[in-house]
Design brief:
By secondary structure, the protein is of the alpha/beta class. The chain has two domains: 2-86 and 306-390, no CATH class; 90-229 and 265-303, von Willebrand factor, type A domain (Rossmann fold, 3-Layer(aba) Sandwich), CATH 3.40.50. The chain is built from nine helices and 17 strands. It has a six-stranded mixed sheet with strand order 2-14-13-17-1-3, with no helix packed on it. It has a six-stranded parallel sheet with strand order 6-5-4-7-8-11, sandwiched between helices. It has a three-stranded antiparallel sheet with strand order 12-16-15. β4, α2 (103-122) and β5 form a beta-alpha-beta unit. The longest helix has 20 residues, at 103-122.
């Protein structure tokens, strides 16, 4: 419930666009209302919400934000429509050890993957799941197609890379098969990797991380989840359980099989990756993966923040968008005065520490994208509002 309340409040950060009309025209778009705000120019805003012209003072804000002078947008911006910022999508890659000792565990993954994905989707997050496992693992609808034998793929939400994953090579197989599943990735999505195995990895944690980021830098900040053994088999053989199975308290020793160990090795490398990325650990020895998959889904939902990419609403009928007449204004949820977020004309490479915003395409823009520094400010303000104002000359970041 806590995560649901969190995302309900985050969604309050919205995009309000004010579209310019020709002189003398009145237009409405989705219940639009006149709106004035801080921006360029020297005229005075008559709107109660009107703020000063940012280009007059050069700005004294933070993260590409600046307060303005005496100008206003009211005379050149006249129609508003509201759109809501969306949560980041989530890309999840799961490798399942399909060696002979993992038959029961593979069945647990098959049983729980649909619930896992459904919990994420129910939170309003667009999820892509990549499963790396042999054809013996078959995911039913709605996530998969239910057509077994390696034909259960259902794009774009679910991709099955049909590949044998042996006891100790889950991490290496993830890297080796990257060309087969990279098409499912979105650059703006959160990234979660997971392994289910009864063995340890032959590839160490540091090497895996460096090779992964070399393949795809968008994995920076990834989370790693693991369902692996919490202890090694020696604990069952030499820890007293083998000779007194009835009194054994170690969950990794199977009492129904004379305390034989559930695993081949403790998942040491996987546990390191979980710790390093603050991921989710599930003990394979519990043999009940349902709660673990629920925890993994919760972690994905909590990691998804408001996207800092805003779709540009279409102008009123008969009007056209002029990319040189766009401004972005941020009103803090604290009630402090609105400030201008300046445009960085060079795009993402021009963001720098000061932040700002830029278009996805300079020639035919469809989105306004906020620089990382400014994005962090917006994501940290659950009740803030971003207004995109069309019709006044764009305020460029002061140099």
């Amino acid at each position: 419930m806590a995560s649901s309340r969190r995302h309900a409040s985050l969604l309050a950060l919205s995009l309000s666009a004010v579209l310019a009309c020709s002189p003398g025209e009145t237009a409405t778009t989705g219940g639009s209302t006149p709106s004035g705000g801080g921006g360029s120019g020297g005229s005075t805003s008559t709107s109660p919400n009107g703020g000063g012209g940012a280009s007059n003072t050069g700005g004294n804000g933070f993260g590409g934000l600046g307060t303005g002078g005496s100008g206003g947008f009211a005379e050149c911006a006249g129609v508003s429509s509201t759109a809501t910022a969306e949560l980041q999508p989530a890309d999840i890659i799961i490798a399942v050890d399909t060696s002979g000792s993992m038959d029961e565990e593979s069945a647990e993954v098959q049983q729980n993957l649909n619930t896992f994905a459904s919990l994420i989707v129910a939170s309003g997050i667009d999820v892509h799941v990549v499963l790396i496992a042999d054809a013996g693992v078959c995911i039913p609808a709605p996530l998969g197609s239910g057509q077994c034998g390696g034909a259960d793929e259902s794009l774009p939400a679910f991709r099955h890379v049909v590949q044998t994953v042996s006891s100790s090579d889950s991490l290496q197989v993830m890297l080796n098969t990257y060309p087969q599943w990279s098409a499912s990735l979105r650059p703006e999505a959160t990234k979660t990797l997971a392994v289910v195995s009864d063995d340890d990895s032959s590839l160490d944690a540091a090497s895996f991380t460096s090779q992964l980021l070399a393949l795809d830098p968008t994995f920076q900040g990834f989370k790693f989840d693991a369902i692996v053994s919490s202890t090694g088999p020696d604990e069952c053989i030499f820890g007293g359980c083998f000779f007194n199975c009835g009194a054994c308290q170690n969950p990794c020793c199977d009492q129904s099989q004379f305390c034989q160990p559930f695993s081949a090795e403790e998942g040491t490398v996987y546990k390191q990756l979980v710790q390093q990325t603050t991921g989710v650990f599930g003990d394979l020895c519990s043999q009940d993966f349902g709660p673990v998959f629920q925890d993994m889904a919760t972690a994905v939902v909590q990691a998804s923040q408001l996207s800092c990419e805003y779709d540009i609403p279409p102008p009123p009928e008969g009007e056209t968008l002029d990319p040189g007449l766009v401004n972005v204004r941020y009103t803090p949820g604290s009630g402090d005065p609105a400030t201008t977020i300046y445009n960085v004309p060079g795009g993402a490479g021009d963001c720098g520490a000061a932040g700002g915003w830029y278009y996805d395409d300079l020639v035919a823009p469809t989105q306004i994208i906020v620089c990382p520094t400014t994005c962090a400010t917006l994501q940290g303000d659950a009740n803030g509002q971003v207004d995109v104002l069309f019709g006044c000359e764009t305020d460029i970041v002061p140099r």
